[in-house]
Amino acid sequence: MKKIIACIMSVLCLAALAAPAVQAQERVFPAAQEFFPKGKAMPWYYVPLTEIFFVYWGTMTGNVFSDSVLVLHKGELIYERYARGWDKDTTHQMYSVTKSVLSALVGVAIQDEKLTGVDQKVYTFFDDVEIPPGQESKYDITIEHLLNQSSGLPGDSDKETDQYTWWEAEDTGKAAFEIPQYCAPGERHSYSSGPGMQTLAGLLRRAVGEDLLTYARRKLFTPLGMTSVEWDAAPDGLRYGGFGMSMTPRDMMRLGYLYLHNGNWDGQQIIPAWYVAATPPPSPLNKDYGYAFWYFTRNLPKYNSGYSASGSFGQFICVLPDQDVVMVRTGSPGPIASGMNRAAYRSSAMEYVFLHWILPLLPFRGVPLDYLRGLL
Question: Sorting pLDDT into bands at 50, 70 and 90, what band is 62?
Fold first, then answer.
């Protein structure tokens, strides 16, 4: 029986991964009041398998509920579904997807000639910061180090982070940059929602000379028709670099579509193509991360060029260039997960089946379990 099941799953995997090649066609770039046209789902898209998968996987991870899932294929919306209490006009907290949008804004500033490139030294934007003895390597930090989370500034899991309250400073970007490094830039990857990203936000505001949300609306969001974006700011007025952004799933889709088309939107180059091309490849210190985006290939070997902007509780904008696909998912932790004994759901055999047989069949990691939510 095991051999029969394995054979069936192998055939399904092969059929699913044999997606048709992308055909050249006229591209659709919707205006703010419009959206992508509806289309027919790909043959390898199968909703029931996805629901079965996410009941299991979501329970393990705490992301029991998907609040929205959207799939765009060749410029056509083949799937859009919302859980109870959510719809196309409801904004959702993005958490660390904010970092990826900040990265996109760095690309916009390079296209806009406010920045010359990612090799610019960070200290040149903070001429009011005095670098103390023993921290001379701070002169070597570049914008690229900040984008790749390898600046040497303490990250979220480093104990040094707890010693500083940069968010209370009169200039949070400057205060974040002043925090002592624990190592030289380029020596270690340390994921940061704080000092590194706030330094990047402060640097960018100094470079463009205006509030980052104002600049983003003028140079990025409005050209794409993104009208829902809000962005929390620290008490000093600087937008948070590592979190705090919210938008609708449809606006998330527009940003993913911009990256799918190498930073070009309806003939206008918003982000340099070379910058977008540099986004999926990994940074030297982390094979799964680069320019504030994550590879989306841990369990999807077919989609070896896929990458995503990712945030807590399952927020993501996933771009699969090889398949001409953009996927958006927003999520929230559910009360089921918090009350369950997760050990009961952990099984090496089941884990293997889901990670290596079921997941490769799926273009995303779950659908809204609104029928479960209705029971709570």
Answer: low
Considering the domain architecture, whether residues 203 and 183 belong to the same structural domain is answered as yes
Per residue in 286-308, pLDDT tens? Answer: 888 999 998 865 444 444 578 88
Instruction: Answer yes or no: is 289 within a domain.
Output: no
Q: What is the pLDDT of residue 118?
A: 97
Long-range CB pairs of 303-309 (<8 Å, 24+ gap) are 305/280, 306/280, 307/279, 307/280, 309/97, 309/99, 309/100, 309/101, 309/255, 309/256
**Do both 79 and 203 map to the same domain?**
no
Specify if 90 maps to a domain: no
My answer on whether 224 and 103 are in the same domain is yes
Q: pLDDT grade, residue 22 (50/70/90)?
A: very low
Residues 245 and 328 placed together within one structural domain of the fold: no
Among 44-53, 95-104, 176-185, the least confident range: 44-53
Tell me, yes or no, whether 336 lies in a domain: yes
Q: Do residues 247 and 103 touch, judged by C-beta distance below 8 A?
A: no
Q: Please report, for residues 152, 191, 298, 360, the alpha-carbon distance to residue 288 in angstroms, rounded to integers and kept in the order given.
A: 19, 12, 9, 18
Range of the domain at 361: 1-85+296-376
